[in-house]
Amino acid sequence: MTPPRSALWLLSRRLDRDTFEAISGDLTEEFDRRATLRPVLARAWFWRQTVATLLAWRTPRPTLGAGRAPDASRQWLGGARLDVRIAVRQLWRAPGFSLTAIVTLGIAVSLNTAVFSVVRPVLLDRLPFPSSDQLVVLGELQNATISTIGYATFDDWRARMSNLATLAALGSWAPALATDSGAERLNGMRVTHEFFALLGIPPALGRGFAPSDDVYERSTVVMISDRLWRSQFDADPRAIGTRVRLDGVDHEIVGVMPASFEPIVSAQFYQPADVWTPLGYDPSRSVACRTCRHLRVIGRLHAGVTLAQASATLETVHGQLRQANESQLRGSRAGIESLQDRVTRPVRRPLALLQGAAMLVLVVACANLASLMLARATSRRNELAVRAALGASRGRLVRQQLIEALVLSGLSAACGLALAAVWSRSLLALAPPTLPRMSQVSLDWTAWLFSVAIAGGSAVAFALAPALRSARTAAGSEGLRTTARRATLRLRELLIVADLSVALVLIVSAALMIASLRNLLVVSPGFDPIGVSTFQMSLVGPRWAADDAVRAFHEELLVRISSRADVEAAALSGQIPLGGNRDSWGASIQGRLEDNEAELERYSVTPDYFKAMRIPLMEGRLIEPTDATTSEAVALVSQEAVRQYWAGSSPIGSRIRIGPRDGPWRTVVGVVGDVRHAQLDAPPTPQMYLPQSQLTDSFIVLSIRGPVAFPVALQHVRSTVRDLAASVPVYSSSPYVDLVARSAAPRRFLALVLVGFSACALVLTTVGLYGVAAYAVARRAREVGIRIALGASPGSVRWMLLRRGLALAAVGLLPGTGAALGATRLLESQLFGVAPHDMSVLLAAACLLLVVVLAAHVVPLRRAARIAPSTALRSE
Amino acid sequence: MTTTDWLGEFEQLVLFAILQLDDPYGAVIRQEIARRTGRDVSAGAVYTTLDRLQARGLVSSFWGEPTPERGGKRKRHYRLETAGRHALARSWEALRSMARGAGPKLEEQ
Q: Which of A113, A263, A299, A359 could form a disulfide bond with A167, CB atoms 3.0-4.6 angstroms apart?
């Protein structure tokens, strides 16, 4: 075993030849002896000896000449080491100051870091695909947003844009997977064969889709996710080539996607997917029609093609298509945007707001820090003056304080990171399902860097400025003292004013969000979700090809479910409000809108639906059990539909038609109340209800009203469905109130986080106020003492001191109000039922701050009133 | 007598080691100090001190033969000179006379 060569090399560089020979010989000899016992320790020992020797050896190696001056840098480094030691000692000696400073900055850093950890994967990171900037989303525009298109249009785009980009289409697919215990419903997608190659992610196992898979009737192959592979196939590589039964049809597994494949691209974006199958459309199939707009289109631009070029070509291509297919594409326009923009746009504003709010907390913390440092610099004036007198240069004094600030920021960053881990977890727990890429949230090195950077930046900027100022006046005479202290107090008061105005901005924002949340939760959705449980199921596959089979299942299911005494009403419908599904149809109204211009949300329901949901009847009658498959086709419409399409007059007896032109006319027999379908905050859209017997759905929602507890109901539904048809999966089971809560989740998230942030800002402001109040009392101790000696009552003394604090508050609220009015405008899109400049909210926030000002003064004022005249006169 | 004739504490330790060892050289001096005082000092510290002592004429040194266990490096042997012996004796005497009667008081603390 030989000693570490690099250590020997280091020694040889530093020592003269003779000394090197003697020392390295000695060390080698002893190393040999040690190495026979404990080799690892021996190496460590050798290194320790080397470093210690290098440090001890002060004679520069003569052969390197006099040009090198290691002493200067060594001295500097040695000095810096000393400064760090001094800094740590100084901070240790003033635990109150250090702890306040570290925690203040630490809290602000932690909030910023935690928010950053959430913001980074969504807003800053590129999407996890190779050359992800070439990925785009295309579609026909609907309300200026890129939407879905029909296959025929996709086929034309794909062919005519092939010189610019590769395109792929995808549609949603939710097959039922037969399992031992019944059936499980999977989230999946139908994709054209280009999909995976276009994204640039190859399968981890097996193969991707080939053009030959993407053909009608031959598309019975699937690729599965890593998750499904592990849960259903025990991660067995032999799963490739095996068959799974999906929707009653055998599918061959050809590939497994890697675990890192994120479900970013799906029909709705960010819907998890576990199984993919080729779309298998050709233009001759009826589902492939130009107006069957249910396919999402993504593309990868060829290298060197810009979005603008692609956009121009798409416009031309679509214009030609529109001319050739006037009837189907009338008024249609096409749009294209980058995939990155498409997936992040909906959350950009809320996340930017959060980061902004966190930054405001940092501003408060920095103001406090500066204020603390000012006070400290004033109290250290003597020390600095002595050091300056003893010959410390100004640079040296500044460096000392700079290092102190850096030590402080290091400790704050550490404190901040520890706290950030807690916040980050809480943010994740609170995050609404609409926030994308949450699986990628982590406190990685970028978060470390971020927190160290803001802690360091803040500490240096806000701790050093006062230090510089004090160093400048360090040598100042005693007579300057009072003036300097007054100037310090002025500055600190200014900082408090900043604190107060920023805190006001945060509090007003939080209050507005809470008001919005409250307004949202008291909005009547048009039905009564309390006491209702919902369950979704799908009847897909050869067994359910005929509507009769489906209807028979519906009837039998309802009979069995209702058999329990604690079920008051049970009903089936094709969709439910706030259930996350959309089924809106173009409709014609006889004599009014004959060309499918009306658009209505369609609910096919069984008769008890209105009883289960408690949707009120306004006019006419409800759907009755007598509305059978063969009887007259009927429909109900909602009040909003009446307002929009019948101009408020009674629709009873008029006839509407949905879907194809050769479809039946349905007679309107009743009007019911509106429901809020997509979102609680969106006004009701026109709606219609048809008997499930006359338009039968394979995807159905079962709603149960009654005192039955949700877990019991779930058990009941599961066993009933299993008995009736084991291949039918029950999924998305949930108490209805949870669905309503989910609709409010994004606002609740923002509200809770803002409340947390403003609480932090409030605490920091209180601490800052307390510091200034205490300082002011100490500064005026002599004056107070004299006043008390001359017979002033404690009350009048208190008032004299409090007046100043209140004046500060008043001054702080003025710019604060202005800033709050400006800032809340940014919040406007997130508000509901409350204006960004709501005066009562502003007033309440101002009152809260006033309370805080008073609270911060309690202790200093009590202390002031107790100042004995004699001590006061002795002080200073 | 000038102040430079006085020995520093570490110089004394090194000189004591040279005085008592059969064949004093860097490694054994270091080990002897570590064994007796528990102070684990670096080779570099020992050699800077030896250099200083040699420059003051208190010790002298000569080169031995290279050996394989030293990686082919020569050994540098040291010898205590008369001046060194006197300096050490004087320092020790000074220490002893100052320390006389101090024992019980030190233990009190």
A: A299
